[in-house]
Write a structure and sequence with these properties.
DNA polymerase, domain 1, 441 residues, flat, 3-stranded antiparallel sheet, alpha+beta
Length: 441
């Protein structure tokens, strides 16, 4: 695959680029089609792009009904709700992903591959041939039921909701069939979706063990793991940190960029690997400052000493200023940790978790110390505390036990109640007492 071309662009209908209908008029009276044995009417439409198009609606059994449908269509045009063209679901998602999300929304390579895989695996095989303007809510639920992974299902719901909301705003879809999909799937699929409490995270003791082992066995991975565990940073953000982003006086770190693969030729730099291009952050909320502990700042200072040593000794050293980099100064790619991390977890007596679970562990540990959820959400770069609490913080289900009989036996055996104790139930006085008091003559 060429360095300047990260994905093939499918051809789509040019009518996708017309925009919404701005005006329209009927072209004469209704017409009887002898070949089809039904009535039809024709409309002359003008679009936002300035293009014009003549469209026909047919299939009506009598002249009166056809005129009624024509008048209803003209009313829809005046309200801006008329759907002029029919597209298959596959045609729509080709346009939405490659032309809207990439060229207009400027999504990242990781988001692109995630959406593309969901569309290829779950959307196109099950509902790709259906007409978008005739799509039903049950079709969406059926396709989403095919996704067994909770994380993938949540991502697919967000993708479908966002894409169909866009389709409705552009009058490709006539009605709302996407709101509330998540709640409906929870009701219908409660037995198959993994519960949140079953998603493990690292404990403080396990993270401490990993860090100690990492410093001894895999020192090149120690600082990235330390930042992931104590600051909740994504791996793409960690490898993009520069020394200029560290505020030693206020003990804070600023997250300004990330490294990864780009699908845009103008973002690709020839002096760095294709997997380590400097990119914008994932979301607006991802630009943030996070407080650092003193021992983390000390480790950054040690790393700076090593950086300066390599810079002075190696004439070919790349002085890019990255906090976590190779000995020659070249930046890492986002999967650099994999082999070293696997070697570390093999030496531990607890299960290996994916690297991304450091963020979940960070959120769960802070929540365990009663840190405000809004603060945790801001540190992670999330859009809402509710999302952080629901997706990232793991809570344990507390079991309730009936110990009344045990307490009663203990009290009786140790004679803790007075001998004249009367266990009868006492009632408060009824309203008649107060009536006598207030209405006494």
């Amino acid at each position: 695959m060429s360095r300047k071309k990260a994905y093939p662009i499918p051809d789509v209908s040019k009518t996708f680029f017309y925009g919404n209908v701005v005006s329209g008029r009927s072209m004469g009276d209704v017409v009887y089609l002898k070949s089809r044995k039904n009535y039809s009417f024709r409309l002359f439409l003008i679009f936002e792009s300035g293009d014009t198009k003549i469209v026909q609606r047919s299939g009506y059994p009598d002249r009166q009904l056809t005129r009624q449908k024509r008048d209803e269509t003209l009313m829809q045009i005046s309200k801006g709700t008329f759907v002029p063209f029919s597209y298959s679901v596959k045609e729509f998602y080709d346009y939405w992903l490659y032309y809207h999300m990439i060229q207009e929304k400027h999504i990242t390579y990781n988001t692109f591959t995630m959406y593309r895989n969901l569309i290829r695996k779950y959307i196109n095989p099950f509902i790709g041939t259906k007409w978008l303007n005739k799509l039903k809510r049950k079709d969406l639920v059926k396709a989403l039921h095919k996704i067994s992974s909770k994380d993938q299902q949540r991502t697919a719901i967000g993708m479908i909701t966002g894409s169909l909301r866009y389709a409705k705003s552009r009058n490709y879809l006539p009605y709302n069939i996407y709101d509330g999909l998540s709640a409906e799937l929870r009701r219908k699929n409660a037995s198959t979706v993994t519960k949140k409490s079953n998603s493990p995270v690292y404990t403080v003791e396990q993270i401490t063990r990993l860090l100690c082992l990492c410093r001894e066995k895999e020192p090149q991975l120690y600082l990235p793991m330390l930042l992931a565990a104590t600051a909740g940073l994504r791996i793409s953000e960690i490898i993009a940190l520069r020394y200029e982003d560290i505020d030693f006086l206020n003990k804070k770190i600023s997250v300004e960029r990330q490294l990864g693969r780009s699908i845009y030729p103008n973002e690709q730099s020839s002096n760095r690997p294709i997997l380590s291009q400097e990119l914008k952050l994932k979301t607006k909320r991802s630009r943030r400052t996070v407080e650092l502990a003193d021992f983390v700042l000390e480790e950054i200072l040690f790393e700076r000493q090593r950086y300066e040593k390599h810079r002075t000794e190696d004439p070919s050293f790349l002085d890019l200023g990255y906090l976590c980099c190779r000995e020659n100064g070249q930046c890492y790619h986002r999967r650099f940790y994999a082999k070293a991390y696997n070697r570390l977890t093999e030496q531990c007596d607890f299960p290996r978790l994916p690297w991304r679970k450091f963020r979940n562990s960070y959120a769960t540990i802070l929540a365990g110390y009663k840190i405000n959820m809004k603060t945790i959400s801001e540190c992670l770069g999330h859009y809402s505390p509710d999302f952080t609490s629901k997706v990232y913080v793991v809570t344990k289900n507390l079991s309730a036990y009936d110990i009344s009989e045990a307490i009663e036996e203990y009290v009786s055996a140790n004679h803790l109640l007075p001998e004249d104790y009367d266990p009868k139930i006492l009632f408060l006085p009824d309203d008649s007492i107060y009536k006598k008091w207030f209405f006494i003559k």
